[in-house]
Amino acid sequence: MRKQIVAGNWKMNKNLQEGIELAKSINDYFMEKPAAKAEVILCTPFIHLAGVAPILKANKLFLGAQNCASEPSGAYTGEISPDMIKSTGAQYVILGHSERRTYYLEDNAILNKKTVLALNSGLNVIFCCGEVKEEREAGKHFDVVKTQLKEGLFTLKAEELKKVVIAYEPVWAIGTGLTASPEQAQEMHKYIRDLVKTQYCETVANGITILYGGSCKPSNAREIFSKPDVDGGLIGGAALKKEDFVAIVEAF
Ligand code: PEP
Q1: Is the CB–ligand 1 distance for residue 215 below 6 Å?
Q2: C-beta of 129 in contact with ligand 1 (< 6 A)
Q3: Which residues participate in catalysis according to the annotation?
Q4: Angle, to 10 degrees, between the axis of helix 218-225 and the axis of helix 242-249?
Q5: What is the pTM of this model?
Q6: 56 CA distance to ligand 1 centroid (A)?
Q7: CA separation (Å) from 24 to 19, 103, 147?
Q8: Which atom of ligand 1 is nearest to the CA of 97?
Q9: pLDDT tens, position by position, 21-72
Q10: 19 C-beta closer than 6 A to ligand 1
Q11: CATH classification of 5-249 is 3.20.20.140, yes or no?
Q12: How far apart are CA 168 and CA 142, in angstroms?
């Protein structure tokens, strides 16, 4: 049985006090509901990590960052290394989010470097991939995702890939209110799992968790999560309200 995961990506939202409050309310909820099926990860801004870590006491509730540096330490003003993230108590880092690819020009090579460094620091990686609208309309979405994964991820050994969760996030669905249909999500998730099978083996492919991300909300989560190759979600906007976020986790 592979892990089912719901990860919340807070992006650049919530000041420290608001973030602590949100984390507390989510932790309180899961303390009273220890039987939640999915693992839950809160991916907060860097400055929240050390404050949120001691709050997360509930079973299966974890903490992650949204980016990390591509170098381990040194004269890189303003950067945060994977070791620093790990030292806060966080277990995960999101890499390759489309907002990082688009606004900060992160390409597959730099994302591969960050992934290797993060894994070496003992972090688990949530590696994002996905096509933009024009690429889907041109029928290039499979090729785009294939290149992102081949160059960004498939240099890893099978043992290392076990510490990676893939998030398929069609860029046209992120923050737009447009969601991939459950069938579109399943089709791409199956394609990704088959790629992993070809590159590694069936056991690795069957074990890897693949999340869907893109305007996932309480009203559509159940149907999307019911697809056989969808193992959960990476949630943006709906992760900022406790009620919506826990309702998505409960959609399993
Ligand atoms: C995201 O940022 O990863 C995301 C999926 O955002 P949203 O849920 O708001 O579309």
Answers
A1: yes
A2: no
A3: 97, 169
A4: 20
A5: 0.98
A6: 22
A7: 8, 31, 39
A8: 3
A9: 999 999 999 999 877 789 999 999 999 999 999 999 999 999 999 999 999 9
A10: no
A11: no
A12: 11
